[in-house]
Write a structure and sequence with these properties.
Layout (H helix, E strand, L loop, with lengths): L3 E2 L4 E4 L5 H6 L7 E4 L9 H11 L4 E4 L13 H14 L4 E4 L2 E3 L3 E6 L5 H18 L4 E3 L13 H12 L2 E5 H10 L4 H7 L5 E7 L2 E2 L5 E2 L8 H14 L4 E4 L7 H21 L10 E2 L1
Length: 289
């Protein structure tokens, strides 16, 4: 019998250092978890058992790091097939990746920006289509942070919307990335969010970042979320509706009690706005596996 896997509320990025604790019990208030599948595919032993124990109890999202959907190297279809198997094993309803590239015949260990051009739109959409054909479902592409402006014949919102429409895929909206780019490239973050294809946004990311002495913001996922990003999340909910929202923390990871304070902030904001809007939560679609 098929089971519905529903992603809703507030989630947390699961790091391997958390695996033992979370295999025993998922803290109250965490509605779903997210992992980079590349960090778990092919892993056996105790980590495999711990992840299986976690996903038997808590919904999981797969958020890729190395597909390099816009990169010049051939698409790694072996990786896509491995991700498909991983999703089936752990009943994962959503697979997301970055709208960027990270591979040019070798892993670059960074997420590099794409040219905002029609040629790139067509190239990325074709590769997304192939991934979706293999997986048998839509993927979600994430708006990326970047520090140098690539070639632009389209604006960033025009580029993102064109890719999503042509590829017929979904979107992961990273609110912190919007804020980071709005400061670094001097644009209105809410104008950007209003320009996004709201009907395709299946979930959100929030995270902390680092402010350099020269005013440039670096998207580190290694600090607490700042007040302007919290305010932007609130405004995002009011603009597109409440979406499942994931807290990312990749290093300088504090004790779980500290992370739960930020999870609590997300849930309090969702609850407040849900009451104001009459209970329309805008949750992601439940997918049947």
């Amino acid at each position: 019998m098929c089971n519905k896997v529903k992603i809703q509320g507030a989630g947390l990025g699961l790091r391997r250092s958390m695996a033992f604790q979370f295999s025993e019990t998922t803290p109250d208030g965490i509605d779903f978890l997210e992992v980079a599948p590349e960090n778990w595919i092919g892993i056996g032993g105790r980590f495999a058992k711990q992840l299986r124990a976690i996903t038997e109890r808590t919904p999981l999202i797969a958020h890729g790091l190395s597909l390099s959907i816009g990169g010049p190297a051939p698409l790694d279809e072996d990786l896509v097939h491995a991700i498909k198997d991983f999703m089936a094993l752990h009943r994962v309803p959503i697979y997301s990746e970055h709208l960027s590239y990270s591979n040019d015949g070798g892993q670059l260990y960074d997420l590099l920006p794409l040219p905002f051009t029609e040629e790139t739109v067509n190239y990325v959409a074709e590769r997304v289509g192939r991934v979706q054909d293999i997986l048998g479902q839509r993927i979600a592409l994430e708006n990326a942070s970047y520090y140098l402006s690539p070639k632009q014949s389209l604006t960033e919102p025009e580029f993102i919307k064109a890719v999503v429409e042509k590829a017929d895929c979904n979107m992961l909206l990273d609110v912190n990335n919007v804020y980071v780019n709005s400061v670094n490239h001097n644009y209105d973050p809410m104008a950007f969010i209003r320009d996004m294809p709201a009907e395709r946004i299946v979930y959100l990311h929030v995270a902390g970042h680092y402010l350099e002495d020269d005013g440039i913001i670096v998207d580190t996922h290694g600090a607490d979320i700042v007040d302007p990003v919290w305010a932007l999340l609130d405004q995002t909910y009011q603009t597109i509706g409440i979406r499942p929202t994931l807290l990312e923390r990749d290093f300088n990871i504090p004790p779980i009690d500290e992370l739960m304070k930020e999870i609590g902030h997300i849930k309090t904001t969702q609850k407040k706005l849900s009451h104001i809007s009459g209970g329309n939560s805008g949750q992601a679609h439940a997918l049947i596996l």
